[in-house]
Design brief:
The protein is about 25% helix and about 20% strand. The protein has about 260 residues and is an alpha/beta fold. The radius of gyration is 20 Å and the shape is globular.
């Protein structure tokens, strides 16, 4: 009996018990923290039943600033309890009174004013190196795979929600993000209701998903206006310009073989 115990202790672990390894026909079970997306149709299709913390999630859509808030607001409300919500290169400032009514105070919001590709990449990495962060939304229309890999590595040092917002044209490009999805609006709902969202999971730690998901996500401003009671007086969001050092520009230049 003692011999059997010794032999068993030397046996290699089961492959499906190792981090980063999963069966092709089921979602990965990884030792990681997740936050519910707030969408009952989406969570069952995501490893961990939600958005991963400390990993970069890539969201692709035809035009930035249209639908990401409707998709992400439920999770962002939870994330700001741990730290600020940081926006890098946002196409426009979100509607602050609506965000306040929806549970995200302007005091919890930091917008980094970044325009060039180098500024966005540098600012995103600096935010990920910060000590306090609840969630990061970074609009990266021109990032290359090796640049995204660097940001994904920096994301693993955080316990934050990290989203890279990218153009739909990048769907066929290589990406280190463990979770990628496309996002677009469904046709107008009945009787003036807000149109739903169509989400297609392109990449996940698990089997491919061969159909799009339809989420009944209300428009943030509409939902905010439906809430009764006095709203918190919105403060001004903090805006900081991104000033990357020249070293970042040099580091991002392709190296000749």
């Amino acid at each position: 009996m003692g011999l059997n115990a010794s032999v068993n202790s030397l046996a290699p672990p089961r492959l499906d018990a190792l981090d980063g390894v999963w069966r092709a026909d089921e979602l990965a079970r990884v030792r990681q923290t997740y936050v519910s997306s707030g969408h009952g149709e989406l969570d069952p299709e995501l490893p961990g039943q939600g958005w991963p913390l400390g990993q970069m999630t890539e969201i692709l859509q035809a035009q930035p600033g249209l639908h990401e808030w409707r998709l992400l607001l439920p999770a962002l409300r939870q994330a700001v309890a741990q730290g600020p919500l940081v926006l890098v290169g946002a196409p426009q400032l979100p509607h602050l009174p609506a965000l306040s009514w929806l549970g995200i105070s302007a005091r919890q919001l930091l917008r980094v004013d970044a325009h060039s590709a180098a500024e966005r990449l540098w600012a995103t990495e600096q935010v990920l190196r910060g000590r306090e962060l609840g969630a990061l939304l970074s609009w990266l229309p021109q990032a290359r795979p090796e640049q995204l890999r660097r940001l994904q590595l920096a994301s693993t040092a955080t316990q934050a929600l990290v989203f890279a917002l990218r153009p739909l044209t990048a769907r066929h490009a290589a990406s280190p993000a463990p979770l990628r999805l496309t996002l677009e609006a469904q046709p107008q709902g009945l009787e003036g209701a807000a149109p739903g969202l169509s989400v297609h999971v392109l990449k996940r730690r698990g089997p491919p998903l061969d159909h799009a998901l339809t989420l009944a996500a209300p428009l943030p401003v509409t939902a905010a206006l439906r809430r009764r009671g006095p709203a918190e007086e919105p403060a001004h969001a903090v805006v900081r310009p991104a000033t990357p050092p020249h070293a970042w520009h040099r580091a991002q230049q392709p190296v000749a073989a």
